[in-house]
Sequence to fold (220 residues):
Amino acid sequence: MIFFIDSANLDEIRTANDLGIIGGVTTNPTLISKELISGRNAILDHYQKICNIVPGDVSAEVISTKFKDIITEGHQLSEVNKKIVVKVPIIEDGLKAIDYFSKNNIKTNCTLVFSASQALLAAKSGATYVSPFMGRIDDWDKKTASSIQILADIKKIFKNYQYKTKILAASIRNQEHIIDCAKIGADVVTASFKLLSSLIKHPLTESGLKKFIQDYKRVN
Ligand code: E4P
Fold:
């Protein structure tokens, strides 16, 4: 399973990349706005800086919702760097755009996916990645929708028909989400810097390490 970092913060991306555990980055307009970058050129420049840090794919989301505008914006984003994956919401014009991009060899990440049926459409349109939003699914309706069940359904459907679209689990809230994704075989999990760093830690590691160092120092 590949880890992406869900962040537009250059320091976080650099630190996570230095750990050697991440393969790429996902961003969205909210994450970009947190960096207080304004103006189209500054935003494109920021994506370039992210691409310079990580080895793999960097998702950059379109703001447009009309087919023609999504195409124009997607081309502009993909021209920044070969690593850019154009992130497109699952709406009618978005699906059409994903189909267009896929036929023009531009990588896409179909975003804001909350059901297996939406993921199926994304795969049929040729999306490179599909992003089911686990945390938001669980926040929305814990009783009737389980995010991991939706992911497992997507996994089964993609296997049945040998779709090449990769499952990129997004909106990850906790370690359990990550381990559940690994159990069902999600291709990628994107998580915040805070959550990725928390995976390293365990109280017994901390106390064990403290004792090993104390014991060593007692006789040295
Ligand atoms: C990533 O591709 C998504 O945009 C992101 O994971 C959404 O996460 P959130 O639900 O925490 O905003």
